[in-house]
User: Fold this.
Amino acid sequence: MISEIVTEAQHKMAGAVEHTREEFAAIRTGRAHPAMFNKLLVDYYGAPTPLQQLATFQLPEARTVLISPFDRGAMAGIEKAIRDSDLGVNPANDGNLIRIVLPQLTEERRKEYIKLARHKAEEGRVAVRNIRRHSIEGVHKLLKDKEIGEDDSRGAEKLLDAATKKHTDEVDELLKAKEAELIEV
Assistant:
């Protein structure tokens, strides 16, 4: 019983850390990378479709992205989705490819991105702590129903606290790496 609760909590905490990692990947730095476009949905024949399913990405230079749509009919939708996104870029369409040149980040924009990264990290830490709280409630319910003893309950809480610390530390490390990446000129 307790091992199942702890294992499930650890799995969910790892998922929360992975979600935070994905959120960080979507925050633009000075370099181009396809993960910047992970959250973009394109209106493709009336259905919101992830951009990754509609095109391939090439990175010929550090700040240039070439997007090759599988269907040329989707180019206008892709262009509109990129223009309307919060990436702050202006796509250029040459009929076959969509070229995106990322401008240099200003100091002010870097600070905004660092603030955003800190907010995403806090959301990740809160998610991990909520999983801990929910799991401890499950342990307390087992204790109240007399299915486990107090020693088992305390042991489970210690395991959950250790898992929480481990996963919040992972989020902090991700944040530190992202901040260093954003500060780098």
Observations:
- The chain has a mean pLDDT of 89.
- Strands lie at 41-44, 47-50, 55-61, 64-69, 92-93, 98-101.
- The radius of gyration is 22 Å.
